[in-house]
Amino acid sequence: MTSDSDDALNWEGDDAAAPQDRALPHGWNAVGRGSEEVGTVEDDGTVTPAVLDEPAGLSTPMLLILGIVGGVYLLYTIGWVVGGLRLKPLASFLVDDAMFLPWFVLAIAAPALWFLATWVLTRGKAAWIRVAVLLAGVVLLVPWPFVTVGVIGS
């Protein structure tokens, strides 16, 4: 007769029992860590599992708008680089390089910063607010040195 030392700690049928769902009676609320996973016991004795809300993804039109505006902002960044480099010889007559360089770097980073700030600050808002702020950035961040002088302007 061979016996396992763990047989003394087990009852017949322990392995066959299915784990029960965590649930509270009607009218009780679970609080604390893991409370969103606790279901409720209905009047007939069945357990209704807790419904976990998954965050909704972006819609297709919103993804298209973000892609188009992100591409425009990328072109604006390139425009600020090219326009700022064309403007540097003229600006060196008016201001020192120590004053020109920080504003040049900030102008290059402005479209990316605007996009990031819009993404973070309008996260819980309506989609039209996010689109309006992104389009306001398209109007406000135009690289004027590139638009007025261009690449080969005089």
Main sheet: strands, sense, barrel: 3 strands, mixed
Q: In which order are the strands of the major sheet placed?
A: 1-2-3
What percent of residues are in strands? 5-15%
End-to-end Cα distance:
103 Å
What does this structure look like?
The protein is mostly helical and 154 residues long. The chain has four helices and three strands. Strands 1-2-3 form a three-stranded mixed sheet, with no helix packed on it. Strand 2 and strand 3 (47-48) form a beta hairpin. Helix 2 packs antiparallel against helix 3 (127-140). The N and C termini lie far apart (103 Å). The mean pLDDT is 81.
Key structural traits:
three-stranded mixed beta sheet; mainly alpha; 154 residues
Give a nutshell description of this structure.
This protein is mainly alpha-helical. It is 52% helix and 5% strand.
